């Protein structure tokens, strides 16, 4: 009932010359039953949306400012992102929370701005290794969800990505039981807050070292509706097998 999603976060990688990666994805997934999203750096949004127009790959941005405009040197508003033809924006990524100090309230404000401008907000949350080892993962994730997700969210405007910080870019992943536990908790919290219909319909992605060789098992885990993929989304030969695993799941 939930449409599966594979989202690629290119982070600060890529150049116009490398956008042929998109052509490979478009060719391999023309009839995909899944949503496929690539989030390149801001300067590539317009060439990417132009290249992907009408095809199976949608484009998203990696962050936005909560305000519509103003004296915020270096920032980009959700309206500007929507104006490029992009349909999504990642907010609350742990790299933004850690390096730029984004708080739950700021993430929520960014997500509100995204949703108000017709973008789907991919809200990220997840614990550090020390928080997991201290038994704090579930309470932390519950608090992040409560604080970061906008009140007016619907399944059409919100995707939540569980990304344990210690799994991002490290090659380590939680056990499938740990992923299932967190996703079950997220699902229960969403149902409690938004009601059964909306709470059951909001998609939950797993992110953190998803690769072609572990994707199928992760996608077979309850309440995992897809993945947010960093490093393995940079090349079609890595990302495409992950998408194929999702399409078969
Ligand atoms: C990410 O940065 O969101 C991510 C999941 O990265 P990686 O897949 O490289 O661990």
Which features does this protein show?
249 residues, alpha/beta, TIM Barrel, 8-stranded parallel beta barrel, 11 helices, 8 strands, 41% helix, 16% strand, binds phosphoenolpyruvate
Instruction: Indicate the overall shape.
Output: globular
The residue ranges in which pLDDT falls below 50 over 5 or more consecutive positions are none
CATH architecture: Alpha-Beta Barrel
Structural class per helix/strand content?
alpha/beta
Number of domain modules: 1
What is the CATH domain class? Alpha Beta
Portion of residues in beta strands equals: 15-25%
- The CA-CA distance between the termini, in Å, is 13 Å
Radius of gyration in whole Å, from Cα? 17 Å
Q: What's the helix-strand series?
A: EHEHEHEHHEHHEHHEHEH
Percentage of residues in helical conformation? 40-55%
Mean pLDDT: 97
Give a description of the structure.
The chain is an alpha/beta fold. The protein has an eight-stranded parallel barrel with strand order 1-2-3-4-5-6-7-8, surrounded by six helices. Helix 1 (20-28) runs parallel beside helix 11, helix 5 (104-116) crosses helix 7 (137-148) and helix 7 runs parallel beside helix 8. Helix 2 (45-52) links the parallel strand 2 and strand 3. Helix content is 41%, strand content 16%. The protein has a single domain, classed as TIM Barrel, CATH 3.20.20. It is globular. The longest helix is centred in the C-terminal third of the chain and has 19 residues, at 176-194. It contains eleven helices and eight strands. Bound molecules: phosphoenolpyruvate. Phosphoenolpyruvate binds next to strand 8.
């Amino acid at each position: 009932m939930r449409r599966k999603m594979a989202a690629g976060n290119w982070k600060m990688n890529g150049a116009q010359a490398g956008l042929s990666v998109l052509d490979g994805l478009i060719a391999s997934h023309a009839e995909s039953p899944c949503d496929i999203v690539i989030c390149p750096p801001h300067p590539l949004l317009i060439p990417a949306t132009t290249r992907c127009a009408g095809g199976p790959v949608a484009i998203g941005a990696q962050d936005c400012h909560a305000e519509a405009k103003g004296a915020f040197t270096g920032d980009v508003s959700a309206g500007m992102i929507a104006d490029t033809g992009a349909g999504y924006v990642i907010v609350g990524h742990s790299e933004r929370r850690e390096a730029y100090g984004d708080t739950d309230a700021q993430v929520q404000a960014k997500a509100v701005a995204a949703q108000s401008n017709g973008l789907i907000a991919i809200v990220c949350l997840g614990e550090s290794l020390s928080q997991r080892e201290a038994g704090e993962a579930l309470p932390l994730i519950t608090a992040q969800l409560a604080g970061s997700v906008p009140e007016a969210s619907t399944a059409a405007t919100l995707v939540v990505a569980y990304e344990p910080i210690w799994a991002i870019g490290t090659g380590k992943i939680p056990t499938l039981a740990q992923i299932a536990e967190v996703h079950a908790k997220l699902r229960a919290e969403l149902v409690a807050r938004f009601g059964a219909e909306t709470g059951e319909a909001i998609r939950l992605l797993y992110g953190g070292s998803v690769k072609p060789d572990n994707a199928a098992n992760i996608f077979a885990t309850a309440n995992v509706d897809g993945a947010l993929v960093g490093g393995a989304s940079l090349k079609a030969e890595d990302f495409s097998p992950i998408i194929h695993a999702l399409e078969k799941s």
